[in-house]
Write a structure and sequence with these properties.
With about 350 residues, the chain is an alpha/beta fold. Helix content is about 35%, strand content about 15%.
């Protein structure tokens, strides 16, 4: 019988479309009681009524996003307190959670964040993390009941193998952007056009629409998509070669459905995710310039099928870890059973 769940859902009060990709993927993967399950917004103040609603369900699932910050508790980010988490009587299951570390930063957490992470992981059989760097940070904090599953977005197709699409004859290339990389974005778009390709910006946040407001005098306007809806982003998968740029989940949506995608990473979240799936990436902190050969290399990688030769094996490996994680937490799902190396899940007391 499908379980009644409480979804602790950061996508409820954000206009970051990446959170919507994650939410939709988890809802598609899990088999749950859709009529009686509830949603809690962790970005808003948590009330006694919220705790009662959670305790009336069978388990609370934190819909994975980049929440495991060094200082997690902050208005508009995470509003649970440690005391409120202790009042939750059902398992709290983090699914595909990630952390962010910038150049030179260690894996530490502040005291309150560490206290909350320990309460969460102690309440469930296994907690799911997005990438090896997040697993490393939790392990160093003494939290070891964890599974490195990758992000659920990567498996939203439900396919047991990476659903590689035929090489596209399309000319459209999706560009995922960050405002802190504005100059690099403009130069990348110029190079794509010089190769006869048609870039379209797939924005994840309102501030990603900067090319609608500012373009160099030598550049034609760039079509820009920004909607808090999945449908137009899915249509881009069908109508494009693939994605290139700076947004991890915008790129990941293409990879999940078999399109190539090349990431420029400004922090650990992109670096570590690409490491896990043996995907190429170029590291570039915000407000630094990439030279023209580096940008051309990114385009070459996007257009070369062999770039993704290692992805099918890593896809199956991490998908199997996700299946094992779901089974360990008694979460019904729509993924076919898969074999997993038991060393991928460490089931020790937190």
């Amino acid at each position: 019988m499908a379980r009644v769940l409480a979804f602790i859902n950061p996508a409820l009060s954000t206009q970051n479309v990446g959170d919507l990709f994650i939410e939709d993927s988890i809802r598609g993967i899990l088999d749950y009681d859709r009529e009686h399950s509830v949603e809690i917004d962790p970005r808003k103040p948590i009330t006694a009524k919220d705790i009662d609603r959670i305790n009336a369900t069978e388990a609370a699932v934190i819909l994975g996003t980049n929440l495991w910050y060094r200082d997690m508790a902050r208005p508009g980010r995470w509003m649970f307190t440690a005391e409120q988490l202790r009042q939750v009587r059902v398992p709290i299951i983090p699914m595909g959670m990630g952390t962010t570390r910038h150049e030179g930063e260690d894996n530490g957490f502040d005291e309150d964040t560490l206290r909350q992470l320990r309460i969460i992981h102690a309440s469930c059989q296994v907690g799911g993390v997005r990438d090896p760097r997040t697993a490393e940070a939790l392990d160093q904090a003494g939290i070891r009941n964890l599974a490195m599953t990758g992000c659920p977005t990567m498996f939203r197709s439900l396919s047991p193998v990476w659903p590689k699409r035929p090489v596209s004859t399309a000319k459209q290339v999706v560009v995922t952007v960050r405002k802190g990389q504005r100059d690099n974005v403009n130069r990348l778009i110029k190079l794509l056009r010089e190769r006869g390709l048609s870039p379209i910006v797939a924005a994840q946040q309102s501030k990603d629409q900067f090319l609608k407001r500012w373009i160099p005098f030598w550049q034609q306007p760039v079509p820009t998509l920004y909607e808090y809806s999945l449908t137009p982003y899915q249509q881009l998968i069908e109508n494009s070669i693939g994605a290139i740029g700076w947004r991890l989940h915008g790129n990941m949506l293409h990879l999940a459905h078999g399109n190539p995608a090349i990431l420029v990473s400004n922090c650990s979240r992109g670096d570590s995710f690409c490491e896990a799936f043996r995907l190429p990436r170029r590291r570039c902190e915000d407000h630094r310039l990439l030279d023209t050969p580096a940008l051309n290399e990114l385009i070459d990688l996007l257009l070369t099928p062999d770039t993704f030769a290692h992805l099918p094996a890593r896809y199956m490996e991490h998908r199997a870890s996700l299946v094992a994680f779901l089974d360990a937490n008694q979460l019904s799902h729509r993924l076919l059973a898969a074999t997993v190396n038991s060393s991928r899940i460490q089931d020790r007391a937190a």
